[in-house]
Structures are given as structure tokens and as C-alpha cells.
Amino acid sequence: MKQFRLHNGEELTIRRAKPEDAPDIVAFIEQISAETDYLTFGPGEFGITAEQEAQFIESVIESDNKLMIHAFLEGRLVGQLTFMGGARPRTRHVGELGITVLKDYWRLGIGTELIRYCLEWAKQSRVVRKVNLRVHSDNTGAISLYEKLGFVCEGTTTRQFYLDGTFYDCIYMGIEID
Ligand SMILES: CC(C)(COP(=O)(O)OP(=O)(O)OC[C@H]1O[C@@H](n2cnc3c(N)ncnc32)[C@H](O)[C@@H]1OP(=O)(O)O)[C@@H](O)C(=O)NCCC(=O)NCCS
After folding, report:
1. First and final C-alpha spacing in the chain
2. Is 102 in the pocket of ligand 1 (CB under 6 A)?
């Protein structure tokens, strides 16, 4: 567990997910999916029950190249980051990061602290050597956050996301861990 002081003076706690967090996570996902179009699912589309989520968290805890962390303000779950490393010897060192913060808490520094925590964990893991992510090309706020923390753009694919009759490009970003 780590604690941080945010821009507004509030104390943020970041810790790894526990199986008993599962119901709160499902509620968090349902809320955030209605607050942003930048995720790969919308309201009601996550399709994971609290029981399945708890099993997933168990598997993350047992793994040395997966991470699921949560940010709390006064005990309330306000942000989440996941990193999933590959399963096979040739891909164990690389994986993909996903991050979300509840809309009411954007621009307080929570996303920054979640990613810093992940990068520090990756360095200490001695397994993870590359952190990748995918982001909508028009998600300029998230792109600036990633660039600020050292991620670089590595390419673009077209038609990666489809929403309300429109295709969106996706930017691949990454940071090497040494
Ligand atoms: C992207 C997201 C995780 C950022 O979290 P956050 O807690 O607001 O990020 P921070 O407060 O640490 O922001 C750090 C910096 O990133 C940049 N940034 C973040 N959001 C921004 C926005 N909406 N517009 C412009 N810049 C932004 C700024 O440089 C900011 O620094 P500043 O506030 O000192 O100017 C959050 O907005 C979110 O969950 N969005 C919806 C889901 C999403 O887009 N996830 C990423 C999918 S790839």
C-alpha cells in the first residue's frame, strides 16, 4: 500500500486488488463505462460478474507479471489500473496497461500516481521489460498523460474502435523497462 498527497490536498491510497473488492469493482466499471466513450465497452457491456472478477483477481495475485491496483479516496474506489503480461516464455516480459479514473476525480493526479506505481512495480518485477497500451487517437488528455510519463507513440491502426456508426483509429504507445 502507498499513500500520496493529491493536487487538492486529499490523501490518495493505492493498493493491490483483493478478491473481496470484486463487487465494488463491478460497480466501478458500470459507473465509468457510462462516463467515457474511451473504453472498449459501454454501459452493460463489461459482462463479468463479481464472482468471475474475484477469481480473476486471485489469478492476478498469483502471477508475477500481472498487476491490478486501485486508488481510494476516503475509502472510495476512484481509480483502477491493470497490467496483463503474456502467458508464454516469449511474451512474459511484455503486456498491456489499462487505466480508468471516475470522472469526478479527473485532473487531480490520480492517473499519474497509478501509472508511476505500475512502472515502479514493473522495474522491481525483474520480469516485465515493456509496458504497452492502446489509446483512441482523439483521447488527447490520456495521450498527454502517457507522454508525460515517458511513453512514446509506436504506431497507429485504423478502425480499431467502433462506436455509434463511426470507426476510430488507435495509437499504440509503449515504454521500455530497464
Ligand atoms: C485518462 C485518465 C485515466 C487520466 O486520469 P487523471 O487522474 O485525470 O490524470 P492526471 O490527473 O494524473 O493527469 C495528469 C496529466 O495528464 C494530462 N491530462 C489528463 N487528463 C487530461 C484531459 N482531459 N485534458 C488534457 N490533459 C489531460 C495533463 O497533462 C495532466 O496534468 P495536469 O492536470 O497537471 O495538467 C482519466 O481521464 C480517465 O479515466 N479517462 C477515461 C478513461 C480513459 O480514457 N482511459 C484511458 C484509455 S487508454
Report:
1. 23
2. no
CATH superfamily of this structure's domain 2-128: Gcn5-related N-acetyltransferase (GNAT) (3.40.630.30)
Distance 162 CA to ligand 1 centre (A): 22
Residue 21 CB: number of other CB atoms within 10 A?
21
With a 6 Å cutoff on the Cβ, whether 139 touches ligand 1 is: yes
Residue of the nearest CA to atom 1 in ligand 1? 142
Render pLDDT for 39-94 as a digit per residue (tens, 0 to 9).
999 999 999 999 999 999 999 999 999 999 999 999 999 999 999 999 999 999 99
101 lines ligand 1 (CB under 6 A): yes
Phi, psi of 84 (to 5 degrees): -120, 110
